Amino acid sequence: MPRWRTGDAVLSAFELDFVESGQRHRLPLGQGWNRRFEAADPVREFRWAKGGESFAGLYYSTTAGAHVGYESWLERDRLILLDRDPDVVGIASQPFWLHWHDGKRRRRHAPDFFVRLGDGRGRVVDVRAGDRIDRAAAESFEETERACRAVGWEFARVGEPDPVLMANIRWLSRYRRRRCARADVAERLLRVFEEPAPLRPGAERVGDPLLVLPVLFHLLWSGVLSADLEGGLLSSDSLVVTTRGER
């Protein structure tokens, strides 16, 4: 629950414009902040412009149990990372327009994502590479962060992730769906990797790699097994160990 004084100027200086159950709403920040924005419909369309710099699409999030939109490869990669984060329980894209007046003119900004965390807190995420932030974008991020602080949300402006980590996570995301989680194979893999062991030889100890590797990759995605995902690309020799930390 955010803490504020009655009539706090920040809460009245911003307005939230959002879609809920097919209906458009526009409310002062102090009245609208507690909606389930992790389930909100996008407030604007995703555009697939031929020959454009951006690349829009839909990513199926196992966390949300639905497709979530993105407008660039960078946003897509951030979605994948959010989908794997065990603290995240809900994700929505373009969840609302934030409106304010900068003293000269009216401004608005639609954050890229709203994230709900397991402890109930909200997090607003904007995705922009550092070298692509102009003055207008910087001001929008600053005002968005100010609005978030007023209602107890976190705010994060994120850029490009580590390329090696992202390459590994993109690979593991292919095995994110629960159909890859065969319980019998998973239990044998956990026994094999109670002590660190190379990925491929460990899988072969369990059975046919064609059947075992998808389960192994699912366990790496979910964090039940762990490996060094930043030190190099996953390979047959990558050391894998159990964490017993199921999501």
Overview of this protein structure:
Strands 2-1-6-7 form a 4-stranded antiparallel β-sheet. A 4-stranded mixed β-sheet has the order 5-8-9-10, sandwiched between helices. Helix content is 33%, strand content 25%. Residues 1-7 have low confidence and may be disordered. The protein is built from 8 helices and 13 strands. It has helices spanning 9-13, 29-32, 73-84, 135-151, 163-173, 183-192, 199-206, 209-222, and strands spanning 15-20, 23-28, 57-61, 66-70, 88-93, 97-101, 106-109, 113-117, 122-127, 154-158, 197-198, 225-226, 239-242. The protein has 2 domains: 9-158, 3-Layer(aba) Sandwich (Trna Endonuclease, Chain: A, domain 1); 163-242, Arc Repressor Mutant, subunit A (Orthogonal Bundle). Residues 85-156 form the TnsA endonuclease N-terminal domain. This is TnsA-like heteromeric transposase endonuclease subunit. InterPro entries: TnsA-like, TnsA_N.
- C-alpha geometry: elongated
CATH top level class name of the largest domain: Alpha Beta
Task: Encode the helix/strand succession as letters.
Answer: HEEHEEHEEEEEHEHHEHHEE
Class of secondary structure makeup: alpha+beta
Low-confidence stretches: 1-7
Tally of DSSP β-strands? 13
Q: Supply the number of helical segments.
A: 8
Helix and strand arrangement:
Blueprint: H1 9-13, E1 15-20, E2 23-28, H2 29-32, E3 57-61, E4 66-70, H3 73-84, E5 88-93, E6 97-101, E7 106-109, E8 113-117, E9 122-127, H4 135-151, E10 154-158, H5 163-173, H6 183-192, E11 197-198, H7 199-206, H8 209-222, E12 225-226, E13 239-242
Parallel strand pairs: 9-10
Antiparallel strand pairs: 1-2, 1-6, 3-4, 5-8, 6-7, 8-9, 11-13, 12-13
